[in-house]
Amino acid sequence: MNAESIVKANCISCHGDTLDGRGAANKNLQKVGAKLSKDQIANQINNGGNGMPGFKGKLKPEEVTAVADWLAAKK
Q1: One GO molecular function term (predicted)?
Q2: Domain containing residue 50: CATH number
Q3: Is the CB of residue 67 less than 8 Å from the CB of residue 45?
Q4: How many CB atoms lie within 10 A of CB 1?
Q5: What is the mean pLDDT of the chain?
Q6: pLDDT digits (tens, 9 = 90+) for 24-75
Q7: What is the DSSP string of the chain?
Q8: Cα dihedral value 40, 59, 73, 12, nearest 10
Q9: Domain tally for the chain?
Q10: How confident is the model over 2-26, as pLDDT tens digits?
Q11: Angle in degrees, CA 9, 5, 11, rounded to 5
């Protein structure tokens, strides 16, 4: 499962193709792993919050896990 392709298909419209948040600090994911754990990231992806829609039901659980692993490594 390729996390980057999942991100490109589902996340860059808000988070930007370089994950810079398109200038919005709260959407910047470039070092999100330094702030949130893998479980916190997966929870955010699934349930949304703080302006982000939830993707539970839109992404398969294994896709959420792959993206959370990938983002958690960004520190």
Answers
A1: iron ion binding
A2: 1.10.760.10
A3: yes
A4: 12
A5: 96
A6: 999 999 999 999 999 999 999 999 998 999 999 999 999 999 999 999 999 9
A7: --HHHHHHHHTHHHH-TTSSGGG-GGG--TTGGGTS-HHHHHHHHHH-BTTBPP-BTTB-HHHHHHHHHHHHT--
A8: -110
A9: 1
A10: 999 999 999 999 999 999 999 999 9
A11: 40
Task: Give me the domain span that covers residue 60.
Answer: 3-72
Q: Which amino acid is at 62?
A: E
Q: Which residue has the tokens 């302006």?
A: 51
41-50 core/surface letters (b: 16 or more CB in 10 A; e: else):
bbbbbbeeee
CA distances from 65 to 22, 41, 48, 50 (A): 24, 9, 15, 20
| Cα–Cα distance for residue pair 37/8, rounded to 1 Å | 21
